[in-house]
Amino acid sequence: MFERFTKDARAVVKGAVEHCARTGARTVEPEHLLLALLDREASRASFALASLGLSERRERVARALAEARRRAGLSQADTEALAGLGIDVSAIVSRVEETHGVGAMAGDPAAGDPAAGEPVAGGKGWRGGHRPFSRGAKKVLENSLRMALAHGDRHIGDEHLLLALTALPGLAAEVLADHGVTYESVSRVLYGGGGEAKAG
């Protein structure tokens, strides 16, 4: 499948691996793909994101992803839903971090235990620096092919990765939607139509 990726799409995948390594995460997640997309310039996805006003909000998106990571991947919507049930996620995160260190729920490398094979700050991470793609990130890559084919494109561009991120349920899609970037809005900017090709 990777032979179908354009130069821009390959750069996003490489950037996602770099974001993963920088944070010390165990696997490349959809959120790393989103951060790598936000780093791009002069590509179809960057055009779509700029058209939707997201390029000026990059830091807010990065902060929202970091906060969700600190909450063990719970989105703001998840946090609010739990609050409706009387569960204060912020209090839980604070208590866990008091006991185990800042970032403990995120799998932060600073909270890692080298004796247990966990990465530590400044370490090479998992398996000598190799980080596999999570099931969610693989699904984004697979659905990017579906997006390309649905739009009659022979190659997978970074715009197809963006479409796949917005189409699949998860933290990246929720954070994008919170900033006004949805599958429908991206499709409209890129193709001038609705989002009938949405994959799941």
From TrEMBL:
It holds the Pfam family Clp_N. The keyword Kinase does not apply. Residues 106-119 have a biased composition (Low complexity). Residues 2-200 form the Clp R domain. Residues 106-129 are annotated as: Disordered. One of its GO terms (molecular function) is peptidase activity. InterPro entries: Clp_N_dom_sf, Clp_R_N. Keywords: Hydrolase, Protease, Repeat. One of its GO terms (biological process) is proteolysis. The keyword Hydrolase applies. This is Clp protease N-terminal domain-containing protein.
